[in-house]
């Protein structure tokens, strides 16, 4: 009986610890470099552009290990990241509407990999976003990444 109680407590603690919110940051400089290790001397993998949202995995002495929308895991200098919440279109074409309804008038369309600024938390399958040119509206959460 004591063993079951201890096991239940341990399992509960593990499950509670695993329910952490995902942290996202966005590239805040015009161009940043992905590296294969947390060092400026590490192999450069490729560059990423300003506004690209990244999932934070680990932070170590000025470097952040991140995952992008395609699942690539790499290291980026922490100074290249900002707090502005951005999303990226993952659908071939995302439809941004005036209201969070499929029948609402279309404001604009955004092609795959276009960055959109998060304006409000998602609700009922929609999220309010703004394009860098100022146009704003609602997009289905299934058409973007970074939430």
Question: Can you give a write-up of this model?
Answer:
This protein has one helix spanning 2-18, and strands at 24-27, 31-35, 44-49, 53-60, 63-67, 73-77, 81-82, 86-89, 93-97, 106-111, 115-118, 126-130, 136-140, 144-145. By secondary structure, the protein is mostly beta strands. The chain has 2 domains: 20-82, SH3 type barrels (Roll), CATH 2.30.30; 86-145, SH3 Domains (SH3 type barrels).
Write the layout of secondary structure elements.
Blueprint: H1 2-18, E1 24-27, E2 31-35, E3 44-49, E4 53-60, E5 63-67, E6 73-77, E7 81-82, E8 86-89, E9 93-97, E10 106-111, E11 115-118, E12 126-130, E13 136-140, E14 144-145
Antiparallel strand pairs: 1-4, 1-7, 2-3, 4-5, 5-6, 8-11, 8-14, 9-10, 11-12, 12-13
Summarize the structure.
Helices cover 12% and strands 45% of the residues.
């Amino acid at each position: 009986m004591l063993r079951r109680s201890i096991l239940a407590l341990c399992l509960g603690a593990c499950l509670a610890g695993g329910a952490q919110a995902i942290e996202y940051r966005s590239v805040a400089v015009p161009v940043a470099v992905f590296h294969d290790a947390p060092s400026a001397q590490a192999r450069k993998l490729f560059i990423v552009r300003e506004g690209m949202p990244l999932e934070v995995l680990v932070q170590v002495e000025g470097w952040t290990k991140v995952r992008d929308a395609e699942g690539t895991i790499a290291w980026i200098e922490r100074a290249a990241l900002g707090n502005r919440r951005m999303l990226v279109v993952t659908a071939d074409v995302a439809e941004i509407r005036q209201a969070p309804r499929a029948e609402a008038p279309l404001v604009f369309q955004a092609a795959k990999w276009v960055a959109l600024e998060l304006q409000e938390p998602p609700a009922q399958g929609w999220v309010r976003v703004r394009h860098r040119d100022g146009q704003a509206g609602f997009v289905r959460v299934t058409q973007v990444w970074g939430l």
